[in-house]
Amino acid sequence: MKRHIVGFTLFTLFGLGAALAAPQAGQTAPGTQSQPDATHHSGTRHQVDPNRQVHRLSERLNLTSEQQSQLLPILTDRQKQIEAIRGDSKLTPQDRREKLRAVMEGSNSKIKALLNDTQKQTFEQMEQQRRNQMQERHAYKNSATPAPGN
Predict the structure, then answer these.
(1) Which value, in Å, is the radius of gyration of the alpha carbons in the chain?
(2) Which tens digit of pLDDT belongs to each residue from 66-95?
(3) How many alpha carbons fall within 13 Å on the CB side of residue 35?
(4) What is the pLDDT of residues 45-60, one digit of tens each?
(5) Measured between alpha carbons, how far is 31 from 29 in angstroms, rounded to an integer?
(6) How far is 69 from 44, CA to CA, in rounded Å?
(7) 37 near 47, Cβ under 8 Å?
(8) Long-range contacts of range 32-41, CB-CB < 8 Å, 24 or more positions apart?
(9) Is the separation of the CB atoms in 82 and 100 below 8 Å?
(10) Predicted model pTM
(11) CA distance 7 to 134
């Protein structure tokens, strides 16, 4: 049970940033280059750009310009907090996960407060898709990892 909670927590923390920042297949914003800005298979973390996140959410949720301007400071603050937590070498892995989860939950609550009912429903569907993808990745990772002692 604890393992499922940890997996869900990791998904929530990293899935939102990766899913919001990842370009749709074959799509790039006009005037921008397609560059990775999320965690990739190499395991290297790249800084997530809050401006790109606003752009992605705007496309998916049909945000108004007022919502976009309110969203950017939330995402910027979240990114700064995440970077500070990741850079804190004094934290245990469990403490780091808990702090990251709290930051994500707090920012998600602020984001939902900006949205109308239709947008909230879409945002919650996006979160559920990310949770499902993280569970699939976690299950694959566990099945691909040899048992200790092998």
Answers:
(1) 16
(2) 999 999 999 999 999 999 999 999 999 999
(3) 10
(4) 556 899 999 999 999 9
(5) 6
(6) 30
(7) yes
(8) 39/14
(9) yes
(10) 0.63
(11) 7
Q: Show the tokens assigned to 83.
A: 């970077």
Mapped to the 3 state alphabet, what secondary structure does the chain carry?
A: CHHHHHHHHHHHHHHHHHHHHCCCCCCCCCCCCCCCCCCCCCCCCCCCCHHHHHHHHHHHHCCCHHHHHHHHHHHHHHHHHHHHHHHCCCCCHHHHHHHHHHHHHHHHHHHHHHCCHHHHHHHHHHHHHHHHHHHHHHHHHHHHCCCCCC
The tokens for 73 are 């400071």
Pull the structure tokens for residue 14: 């990293």
Cβ pair 75, 81 in contact under 8 A: no
How far CA 47 is from CA of 90, 97, 142, in Å, comes to 21, 18, 27
Task: Specify the amino acid at residue 115.
Answer: L
